[in-house]
Amino acid sequence: MQSITCENLTKSFKGDGVETFALQNIHVTFQQSDFTAMIGPSGSGKSTLLSIIGTLDEPSNGKVLYGGEHSPRKSNAVANFRFEHIGFIFQQYHLLPTLTALENVLSPVMTRKVDYDKTARAKELLDRVGLAEKAGSLPSQLSGGQQQRVAIARALIQEPDWLLADEPTGNLDSETGEMVFQLLQEIHREKGCGVLFVTHDETLAERADQVVRMVDGKIVSE
Ligand code: ADP
Ligand code: MG
Question: The complex's ipTM?
Fold first, then answer.
């Protein structure tokens, strides 16, 4: 999965007889070797595009190719594909509130048979994001920046080819946002995973290898 290509992607939502086009004829290729920023006003389709690329949603038309291939079609195969290849990070962290930091990092692999020592890897990842001593803390005992670092460690548990980050710094003050941004850039370099980083922050976007700008469901520049 060295590349992800969107070919003529369109997504519309129908409600009350009105059809809203969230994405219109999107053509774009992302390289795993790039840290790509995606920027655009609220409602321009960034989250919709990320969801479709991440196989959480399906396009109305067009296709996404991963290293030139289609994703599987059957839903359990899609779930496995996502599990193996894609890590997600969200603005609201989406940690499970009753689980500790370590258990949150482990949560994607808890119920799966995997051929590695899950706990050792989860601890290494918590250490990598600077939270080794918070392994036993609940999300409510962590700051926003710390919660987002736990979410980053969780996204890495399966060593994904791609990290899809939907405004991961959107809830953080600029200093903490900077730290999370730098962490994601380091992880991109260390682990070689492609990063799609959605942001509102022009100064962060300018530091990416590639910047994709969206307006009204269309890519206006790359
Ligand atoms: P962004 O992430 O850039 O703010 P979104 O991808 O969330 O934009 O939304 C793009 C457009 O699609 C918006 O007009 C939004 O209202 C619409 N939209 C997104 N998700 C849904 C949905 N599940 N049902 C109906 N409309 C949606
Ligand atoms: Mg969004």
Answer: 0.98
